[in-house]
Design brief:
CBS-domain, 14 helices, alpha+beta, four-stranded antiparallel sheet
Length: 426
């Protein structure tokens, strides 16, 4: 899990003797937050304090085992906090819960060792993977994809053998729901109505999952995983043991993060990091779809539906980059009347069907674009471009000349393929 920018800090005050069933309440809360794939939480024991019942609790030598104060701090995405808060309130029957907005400046994982092409997949894979049964109601799976930051759910049988995979794209292509990247375009009430309709439909995960699914073993080389993802045009692979049972997941983003990390100081540095000599200009796409800021929205929609990257760059005089528009931007900034038609158009495009563009009124590209996007030059090292993508959680960067004029576009896939080619083999 990854967070950056505005987040919510939740502080929970309770007593060490508080229980949840047969378990300490503070441990039960931490385990619940971890199971929900939250960003992280910390519990600390206080020296002294009193609460609603005005009892003073201290950590004196005679009373080390008494009911000392416990404070849990949890920082996470505001939407995830809102989703989990009802469950948290149910668990904290006596205590105090506060919330406040905070700005997350950095959220980093422990540095990884220098990555080699023959490093095993188990070194990078995520071991705590949410999976579903093929007979599970499709509404339950969609609720996981919408409510948590998952983009794919492995489908496993009773012995945890992988029999398929369900992604947000599969759901988008066949159902009237937005992909996870644009989940903010639906209100809580709208999501509830869609999920209730799905439950009434009786559909199961088996109806929408992709099967058979491409997998890789935990002992396979990272380079083989990269090759599979590149050749098949997929972003993630279930990791299995020798019997085909699920043991983890590895994604394109996992590999990119590892490549972006510097080698640990205590290890001898390699002659050069993967991609240290490669530049953005070596891998960028030179053909980029562009519009002017006064272009009508209908033109933007047509371009987005024809663009594999789902990005249109907005340029001004002299081809200077002034903004960028994604399908998510368009959906999230559409009004209530426009959104259903737009959503239907994108769903049909994913499913391979096209229809006439709907009338979106007199709004222009400038009304829906993200202004002043992050950019790089053709001379920017690939590793610097990669760190910019990861830091700001974006997938594409316009490539510009010194005067800001557009010359190309570079994304995660191109960077991964280039860096993987440069992995040391020994």
């Amino acid at each position: 899990m990854e967070i950056l920018g505005t987040a919510t800090k939740v502080t929970i005050y309770l007593g060490e003797s508080d229980r949840w069933g047969q378990e300490s309440l503070y441990m039960a809360i931490l385990e619940m937050l971890k199971s929900e794939d939250c960003a992280g939480a910390t519990a600390v024991r206080g020296l002294a304090g009193f609460g609603a019942h005005s009892r003073i609790h201290t950590a004196g030598i005679v009373a080390l085992s008494s009911d000392l104060p416990i404070i849990i701090e949890w920082v996470d995405d505001p939407a995830r906090v809102a989703r989990i808060m009802p469950r948290l309130e149910e668990m904290v029957a006596e205590g105090l819960i506060t919330c406040q907005p905070v700005e997350v400046m950095t959220y980093s994982h422990r540095e990884l060792r220098a990555l080699r092409a023959d490093a095993p997949v188990r070194d990078l894979m995520s071991r705590e993977v949410r999976a579903v049964s093929p007979d599970a109601p499709i509404a339950d799976a969609v609720e996981i994809l919408i409510g948590q930051a998952y983009r794919g759910l492995p489908v496993v049988d009773g012995e945890r053998r992988v029999v398929g995979i369900l992604t947000d794209g599969d759901v988008l292509a066949r159902l009237d729901l937005p992909a996870a990247g644009v989940q903010t375009t639906l209100t809580t009430a709208e999501v509830s109505r869609e999920l209730e309709a799905l439950r009434r439909s009786g559909k199961t995960v088996r109806d929408l999952m992709v099967s058979p699914v491409v997998t890789i073993t935990a002992g396979a080389a990272v380079a083989d995983a990269v090759s599979l993802m590149t050749e098949r045009g997929i972003k993630r692979l279930p990791v299995v043991d020798q019997h085909g049972r699920l043991v983890g997941m590895i994604s394109r983003l996992d590999v990119l993060r590892a490549l972006a990390q510097p080698p640990m100081r205590e290890l001898p540095a390699p002659a050069a990091q993967p991609g240290a000599r490669a530049r953005v200009g070596d891998v960028m796409r030179s053909s980029v779809l562009t519009v002017r800021s006064d272009a009508p929205i209908n033109k933007v929609v047509d371009l987005l539906l024809s663009a594999a990257a789902r990005r249109v760059v907005v340029v001004g005089d002299g081809q200077q980059v002034v903004g960028i528009i994604t399908d998510g931007d368009l959906l999230s900034r559409a009004d209530a009347a426009e959104r259903p038609g737009l959503l239907q158009m994108f769903i049909r495009q994913v499913a391979g069907a096209r229809e006439a563009t709907i009338d979106l009124g007199k709004r222009s590209a400038g009304d829906v674009m993200t202004p002043n996007p992050f950019t790089v030059t053709a001379e920017t090292p690939l590793l610097d471009a990669l760190r910019l993508l990861l830091q700001h959680k974006i997938k594409w960067l316009p490539v510009v000349e010194a005067d800001g004029s557009l010359v190309g576009l570079v994304g995660r896939a191109e960077i991964l393929e280039a860096l993987a080619r440069d992995l040391p083999r020994e």
